[in-house]
Amino acid sequence: MTATLTSTPAVVRTIAEIRAAIRAYRAEAGATASVGFVPTMGFLHEGHASLIGRSAQDNGLTVLSIFVNPLQFGPNEDFERYPRDEARDLDVAARAGADIVFMPSVSEMYPTSAATQITVSGVTERLCGASRPGHFDGVGIVVTKLFNIVQPDRAYFGLKDAQQVAVVERMVADLNQPVQIVPCPIVREADGLAMSSRNVYLSADERREALVISRTLAKVPAWIDSGMNAAQLTAAVREGISSSPIADIDYVETLTYPALQPPAPDAPVSVSDGRIIVAAAVRFGRTRLIDNILISLPEAQPL
Ligand code: AMP
Questions:
Q1: Rounded Cα gap, residues 270 and 90, in angstroms
Q2: pTM for this structure?
Q3: Which residues of the sequence carry a binding annotation for (R)-pantoate (predicted)?
Q4: Are residues 123 and 61 both part of a single domain?
Q5: Binding site, residues?
Q6: Phi, psi of 287 (to 5 degrees)
Q7: How many CB atoms neighbour CB 5 within 10 A?
Q8: CA 258 remoteness from chain centre
Q9: What is the residue range of 110's domain?
Q10: For the chain, what is the domain count?
Q11: Nearest Cα residue to atom 7 of ligand 1
């Protein structure tokens, strides 16, 4: 067995401390300084670790934030019971290569309720934007606040939340936020289930049934090659997921990416559509899971 040397990241909980730590790093590193930032809600898994690892490769300093943002949860969602485990998170953060972990309290981030809103239109019309009203406004405000606090050169987001990537990219472009967004591929369990902090909610039976999502999405490239149009593709994915008796579909949609608009309805999905996403949100018991496949045409290869 080989021992891996990892250094424990510095843990900071206040905005003043994180600003001071980054200022000190920039002063020391000078012109070569580069700060990578990975915003998360914690309960870290290998998906998060992949973003941290990528940031550590690209940058001199990697800042990880862990903050369960109340503003992006609806009134009947799982804010209160969202899984939290600081000690385990610090272990994953250290192994993945984070230098600083920023873990603010809700009152540190929102000393007063913010009067300012960030609403990104268009890309939020469908998918989670439609089924979780207000969710992306909550994401917009917290990501903007975190960008202003950390002032990173690059920020790393997972394509597991592909709509979130599209929303953040659009917000950064519209507001000239001085940060480069780096989208990262979906990390899956060995059997294909997309990793998610919410997977711990699943019973053994639900966990087994949930595989129907990734198994069905994996068939999408072949279905596109066979000449299906967007409506047929959506119907085929719906049917595949419905083969599980306990899958309760919230949405299945086939859209262009990153605009997240419907492609031409009748023609087969084709090169003129650019990138296509097939995205699904499905409930198993009380747990809502999301997954997607992003296809770059004409090869019909998953990204
Ligand atoms: P969360 O803690 O769920 O808010 O996720 C924080 C970041 O990790 C987001 O950019 C997510 O897209 C990303 N992420 C979550 N799960 C995965 C995964 N399975 N693969 C890649 N990135 C992920």
A1: 45
A2: 0.95
A3: 72, 164
A4: yes
A5: 41-48, 72, 158-161, 164, 187, 195-198
A6: -100, 125
A7: 5
A8: 14
A9: 10-184
A10: 2
A11: 40
Same domain, 150 and 255: no
Q: Residue 248: inside a domain, yes or no?
A: yes
Compute, in angstroms, the gap from residue 166 CA to the centroid of ligand 1.
14
The pLDDT tens digits of the residues spanning 46-77 come to 999 999 999 999 999 999 999 999 999 999 99
The answer on 160 and 201 residing in a single domain is: no
Active site residue 135: no
Return the pLDDT at 298. 58
Residue range 204-229: average pLDDT?
96
pLDDT of 242 reads: 98
Amino acid in position 237: V
pLDDT of residue 86: 97
In the structure, what pLDDT confidence band is assigned to residue 5 with cuts at 50, 70 and 90?
A: low
Q: Do residue 83 and residue 122 come from a single domain?
A: yes
CATH of the domain at 245: 3.30.1300.10
Q: Quick one: 175 and 205 in the same domain?
A: no
